[in-house]
Predict the structure.
Amino acid sequence: MRAESARRDEAGFTLIEMIVVIAIVALIAGLVLMRQPWTSAGFEREATQRALADALRLAHSRAITQGRNVAVLTGAAGFSVDGGPVRPLPAHQTLSASHIVFMPDGGSSGGTIMLASGQKRIVVTVNWLTGRVRAGDVNGP
């Protein structure tokens, strides 16, 4: 009988052992997360793509509501809307040079802007007839 009770006492883990293991795992996870960069090239590329597409859509809306031509200029350093300040790009990204004009009737001069970041390429196109802005990944999904 004594051997049975001794085995029962040894079976399983104690609460203290479990808490110590969880604390060690949490400490290691915290150290790993602190070493990870909070930004990545993919997130930055997507943010730039959205900012550019939003700027183009803003210019389109502004041309219609204000009844005048509104231009968007892009270049290696960044892009600007209607002569405003240049929105700079992250250091590893470049834009193709382009000058797209949106007109009060909703049309535009149309064009294609290439956003390059490392090996990835994203194309933002503006339809000349409707002024519609579309973005897509050149390298596929």
